[in-house]
Amino acid sequence: MPHGDKAQFTTLFMESKSINDITLFRYLFNLDNRDLPQSILVWYRNVGSVVDPSRESAIKELCHLKGNCRKLVLFSKSFIDTMDKSYMKFTQFHMDILEELDNENGIVRSPYFAEGCYVVYSVKNGCLTLWVFHDKIDKFLSIPTYYICVSPKDKIKGNGHQLDCMIVPLLDNCYEANPNDYINMVLGYLCLRQWAEVQLKQVSTTVKKDVKKEKKTLTVTESGLDYFIFDSKWYTEISNDESFQVSGHFRLQPYGDGTRKLIWINEFTKHGYHRKATIDKVKDGDISLT
Fold first, then answer.
1. Is 273 helix (H, G, I), strand (E, B) or coil?
2. In 3D, which of 59, 56, 45, 30 has the Cα closest to residue 133?
C-alpha cells in the first residue's frame, strides 16, 4: 500500500494544512472560484514538468467533479489491515460495484498514505478513475502525481481476476513503488461501504475568519467542511459437524427488498449446527486513526 516511506519526490514537502485550506477541497466543494485544473497545468509548466496531451486531458477531467463529490472519508487503520488480508476475495464483485455506483465521485485518505496525500475517485460506465493528490509538494496548490483508470474484465475471485489498467504519471521525477494499491483500496472500500455492515462517524470542522465590525476586526468561528471516519464489521452464520468442509468465502447476499449485502461465510462443515460469529472483529466504537 502507498505508505509514506514508499513515496519519493524531488520537491520538498510543506507543512500540513487544514482541509478547509487545501485547494483540492476548496475546488471540489465550491469554496472558491479558482480554476484548479488550469492552475495545476500552469504549475507543471513553471517547474519544467512535461505537459503532453494525456496529462492535460487527465487534469482537465477534474472539472466534472467540481460540486459533485462525496465528503472526504478517512479509513481507520483496522479497516486497512482487514482489507490487506481480504482484498483478493472481493475481486468477483468489482464489475457489480462499478455498475451499482455509476456516476459517483468521492475522495478518500488512508492512515498509511504519505502525509498530505488524498485519492479522488470517479465511477463512470464501468470504469474507476483515480487521481492521486499531494498537498505538500507546493505551498499553495494541491498537486496530482498519478492518474489511474481501471476496468474489471471478469468476475473471477482471486489471482485469475483481470483488470484493464492505465497508469499515467502526471509529474516528472515522481515515483511510487506500487500505485496499483490505490486501486485495490478504493475498490475494496466501495464494496464494503455499499454492501457490508459499516460504521461511519461524521466529524465536523471549524474555520476562524476575521470580520470587520464598527471599525474593529473580530475573529469569528464558522462551520467548516465535514468528513467521515470509515470502519466496517460484518456478522454471519458459521457451521460445524463431521460431514465435509466448505472453505470460507464472501457472498453478495440478496434481500427481499432488492438490496444486497456483502457477507463473509466462515469455513464450515456442511449440514452442521449453526451459531452466530463475528469475522475480522472490530471493537465497537473503539476506533482511532494514526
1. strand
2. 59
Domain boundaries, the chain: 12-200, 234-279
pTM of the model: 0.77
* CA–CA gap between residue 119 and residue 74 (Å, rounded): 11
Cα gap 270→153, rounded to integer Å: 32
Q: Which of the two residues, 104 and 179, has the higher pLDDT score? A: 104
Spatial contact of 248 and 181, defined as CB atoms under 8 Å apart: no
- Per-residue pLDDT reduced to its tens digit, 244-253: 566 677 778 8
Please spell the DSSP secondary structure of 105-145, one letter per residue. EEEEE-TTSPTTEEEEEEEETTEEEEEEEESSSSSS--EEE
Q: Are 243 and 271 in contact (CB under 8 A)?
A: yes
**pLDDT of 8:** 37
Distance separating alpha carbons of residues 60 and 229, to the nearest angstrom? 29
Burial of residue 117, with CB atoms counted within 10 A of its CB: 0-12 exposed, 13-18 middle, 19 or more buried:
buried
Rounded to 5 degrees, φ, ψ at 132 are: -95, 115
